[in-house]
Amino acid sequence: MTMAGSKGGLVGLFKRRGSQNDRKTVTFGDASAVRSLPMYSLLALLGLVFFWYLATQPFGFPDDFKATVDETFQVAADDAEVRNQERIDSGNPNLIEIPFLDPTQRDYLAACAQAPDDQCSSSDYSQFLSPSKFPSPGDTWVAFNRLRTRGFQNETLAGHAGISLWRVIRGMFWGTLIGVPIGFAMGLSSRLRGLFDTPVELFRPIPPLALLPLFIVWFGIGDGTAVRLLIFASVWIMIIAARAGARTVKLSKVRAAYSLGASKSQVLRRVILPNALPELFTGVRVALGVSWGTLVAAELVGASSGLGSMIFTARNNLRLDVVVVGVIVIAVIGVLMDLIMRFAESKLIPWRGKG
After folding, report:
1. For residues 242 and 179, is the Cβ–Cβ distance under 8 A?
2. pTM of the complete model
3. What is the rounded distance in angstroms from the CA atom of residue 134 to the CA atom of residue 320?
4. CA-CA distances (angstroms) from residue 279 to 32, 72, 272?
5. CA distance linking residue 280 with residue 243, whole number of Å
6. Which stretches of the chain are assigned E, i.e. beta strand?
7. Any residues with CB less than 8 A from the CB of 169 and at least 6 apart, and which?
8. What is the rounded distance in angstroms from the CA atom of residue 55 to the CA atom of residue 58?
9. Please, are residues 292 and 330 in contact by the beta-carbon 8 Å criterion?
10. Cα gap 229→216, rounded to integer Å
11. Cα separation of 243 and 200, whole Å?
12. pLDDT tens-digit readout, 135-177
């Protein structure tokens, strides 16, 4: 195997492969030669983080006052440890939660607002966005570590993400299992096309969240409601994808299979399904994106766990740092799911675009 052949996987999706476009003399105006360069994407990401830092960083904040706040946090933590040891020695199992030793920017500014003007005041520093409007990158990182270790709503950040992902997987599984056969039936039979066309075109344009109040009334608040809503969100997309996949199969391939003595089931398995896989994978990618966004929104009011529920509770408690961590995790998971689907598509459907 050559060096070029050994480079694959997810990294290969971002590498520029040699093609006829590399030998073209015309570049400007040729849209087929345009490709996203990873280095520029990284620069854009770093630029966004830097702008975020500048917009939320307090300039001129007194360092001596920060040292005083640090000492206060340390004293509170030491006092909690002493009291916990006293309770352990006395046989009392109810321990006191030890405060964090790493005060955030939000803690510093809150202490400054409560301190006398001769110690710290708002005139001592300048800031474009206060923590009450948007957390700083440092506060967000601290909140991420706290969520990762201590959790939120009796669940760690990984636990909330896992609950949301498991709901999406179940909703996508049943949505695909129901939608693909119906889509193939609509693409291969005029009678079944007429039978399913009306309900599909009637329910497909309805936003899934518009039915959330009804789903809560029917199924209550919890895991079952979220999964059923995801089935509703994904099934119509998979029906349309399967129907389009069945209709894109070249008639010459079907006739060639019949001329070789293939039965209808063999034509379905050996001709129609392989040629429809590209459309099915496109449908899965679209359905995953819709399901992921629908789930997080549904969890805001329809569940007691998951990333959406975590964001909703943090918003009610004015914990914007937790909200931003949840939003970032949602975005990262969404990107990773799309990358995994692109990688699976490149491996499972190598014949895509080759006729």
Report:
1. yes
2. 0.73
3. 7
4. 22, 61, 11
5. 9
6. none
7. none
8. 9
9. yes
10. 10
11. 11
12. 888 888 888 988 888 888 788 888 888 988 998 999 989 999 9
